[in-house]
Amino acid sequence: DAGVIQSPRHEVTEMGQEVTLRCKPISGHDYLFWYRQTMMRGLELLIYFNNNVPIDDSGMPEDRFSAKMPNASFSTLKIQPSEPRDSAVYFCASSRGAEYNSPLHFGNGTRLTVT
Amino acid sequence: KQEVTQIPAALSVPEGENLVLNCSFTDSAIYNLQWFRQDPGKGLTSLLLIQSSQREQTSGRLNASLDKSSGRSTLYIAASQPGDSATYLCANSGTYKYIFGTGTRLKVLA
Hints:
The structure holds two protein chains of two kinds. By secondary structure, chain A is mainly beta. Chain A has no helices and eleven strands.
């Protein structure tokens, strides 16, 4: 398997623009997680899905952030409108599930810079 | 709310030393605890997963232990090498989601 695939690897945008980050989980993994990593706050869980259904979005910072998972092989994280404080590395991860003691697998991340 | 703490935040050691990284967590109701490695500009790579019923796991020069009663896990690295230089993070899984510590940045000097 190719692992968790994220795109784009880098995104530079201006404040106020819409940003869409994409993720393809590992086939057969029922759980998908979106994390944000910054120097100040470390790795924060934004939202996670189970079988394409959002289960916990309590980490989503504001209404400007939204995430979808239309099918088992694709998820998006959208920021609209973007702000400079959204600059961070965004990671997608997938797993068969903690209850099965399945390891968490990460993509290489999307480095977002909002100017 | 689950909190995960890692000590020390940074560590620099000469090559060949054995070292211990610490991870503590507040909620013992977990499925498992995972240790990850992160190289600069890269994603996280899973190193070891310890199930809640286990006390330790070993992979090569790495050994991770888990003490749920005290809310602690340690990662032991034997005979450290410059290639071990990276940030090491632990993650605690409870209620299906993984909460991460802030990591220990390790530098092994040749």
